[in-house]
Every structure is written in structure tokens, then in C-alpha cells.
Amino acid sequence: MSFYQKLAKVGQRFIPKHILFKYAFNWSPMYRRTTGKVTFVSKDLFRMNIELPISYKNRNFVGSIFGGSLLSSVDPMPMVQLINILGDDYVVWDKSAEIKFKRPGKEKLYAEFRYSQEEINRIKEQVAQHNEIEITKITQLSTKDKEAVVCEVSKTIYVAKKAFYKKKLAKRKASKNL
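User: That's the sequence. What structure does it adopt?
Assistant: C-alpha cells below.
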């Protein structure tokens, strides 16, 4: 269990999960460095919003938002959301990320992360059938009015039942020791 997971377990005793989620991200050094800011988290964690202002901290050589800030500001959200929605019986890992630039980001940008109950049900059903799956979530960073999309980030996320994942790791470890 990571430091952040331990902190969340303790914090949830005193602070509602969605509020803790928002402020923990905004205060954590790893997320603060992205220059993004979590602005909203729904009580069920199915929806989150962030904003990414342009500033001297993330402005690149040509005056637009640095691509690393675009990617890193949205990178952890789909995985961490899913970990918290699915619960302790599942293993959730980021597998890959791809960013497609559409135009330069020269103003504050916004992104929304959503899961639906139907999507969560489908993930659980597929994991029950196959033990492990990969899903893809696409997030757009855009202007406030969503008129201009600056980039799309496609995340591939691995999901497995925890028991299956532990057996898989044990087999891999045993085969390496041979």
C-alpha cells in the first residue's frame, strides 16, 4: 500500500471521500507539479473536473501550455477514480497513455472525467468472465466553453480481480526462480 493509499484510509475516517479526494490531489506534490487543479469531485467519484491555467510554470518556448503539463494534469485521474469506485477486490493499473495535440493551449483549459454506472457494471462483468481486461478512457482538454479542443489523452487501463492478479504474479515469480 502506497503512502497516498494509507493517508486516504486514515483521512476517510474524518472527511468524506470525495472531499478528501479533491484536496489530497490538490495538495500532493506529485499533482501540484502538473499545474492542474481538481475543481470538482462528485460524491460517488463518477465525475471529476480539473482546470489547467497557463502560467510561467507550464508555458513552453512558443508560449503555449507545455505538452508534459497537458498530459500529466489528466494522467492519474481515470485510474485513481476507477480504483476507488471498484474497491479493494480489484487491481487497477495504467498500461499506457497517448496524447494527440489538436491546437496550442494558450488559455486556461478544462477537462472532465466520467464513469457511468453502466460502464462500471460492464467492467465488473467482463472481469468476472475473463479475470483481467483492458479498457480505454479518452479525456479532452478544452477551452471553458468546450469550443476548442486542445488535446485528447487516451489512457489504457488494466483491471483484474485481486485474487487472479496475485496468482498471476506468484506464477511469474516462480517461473523466474526456475
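The chain is about 40% helix and 30% strand.
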